[in-house]
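Encode chain A's predicted structure.
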Amino acid sequence: MLEEIVVPLLEWYDKQKRTLPWRSKPTPYRVWVSEIMLQQTRVEAVKPYFARFMKELPTVKKLAACPEEELLKLWEGLGYYNRVRNMQKAAQILVKENKGEVPAQFEELIKLPGIGKYTAGAISSIAFGIPVPAVDGNVLRVITRITADERDIAKDSVKQAIARDIQEIIPMRRAGDFNQALIELGAIVCVPNGPAKCSECPVAHLCEARKQNIVMELPKKAPKKARTIEKKTVLLIKDGEKVAIRKRPKKGLLAGLYELPNVEGELSEDEVLKLIRSYGLAPLFIQRLEDSKHIFTHKEWHMTGYAVRVEELEGDAEGMLFIDRETVEREYPIPAAFAAYAKHMNIILGNKR
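Encoded structure for chain A:
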């Protein structure tokens, strides 16, 4: 059955594929950067990041040599910062061991930090034309529906079995196009959120799930554990035109980034004023800001915010840096989790700048 999808799928892809910046010049480096950016991030959100990243770091050698804070600033707002840290580690290995060249072979790619089976398959097939599968969530959804496969796609054994099935049908001369066609079909027709657009599908006539009327029941996936909820109070501490930021620890969530000062729990106004004084600061004015929420993979931050104006600072205050708005926006990487509060100082984060 799967052999029969190859021709109609490629014909559809040739006519319907989206124009995306990384497709216009699919060099190994550009494919690699785009695939890492696209993990857990929407295509439209990635476009401006990709353009800026390619402008600033157009080669593996430039990526390898980039100072960490500049690198994180380029990534600001994309989240999952270990993605770009691992990408830089891989680039440094390639500069040292492979003259800065991205290898073609799947087996060599998968040895590099941050490159898993999907990314290795994408680089190898799209940039080099090597017939290896690139199986992401879109592909798993498409294939399980076409074959009416009710196995749990969260299991690695199932992913490997589907990859083997795809390996059998990848056309030798259009490996990259075929992998992208499967991904494209899952992204814009056999979509993850909402009803599948079966009337637009080039292989609907071959789809077993459609014949059995179980399209929306697939793919099967064991439910995730509920995210833990952490309550936080975030402080927008202002000294004239300067705002307080501080660097997060080198390890753990959002490691090495800068943040607005915050503490565990939901503090009252009086508790915040007491806390500010404990920092050695003299509060002049306090304003309650809106509540905000930020979702990570395994946890949620439910945040209460306060803007506090303080007297002119003399000396240090609990490791805080008081920096003017323009410099923060230009030089200091701050996670999107704090965007709702940073905007009160007209600090815009990520690709919205």
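The mean pLDDT is 95.
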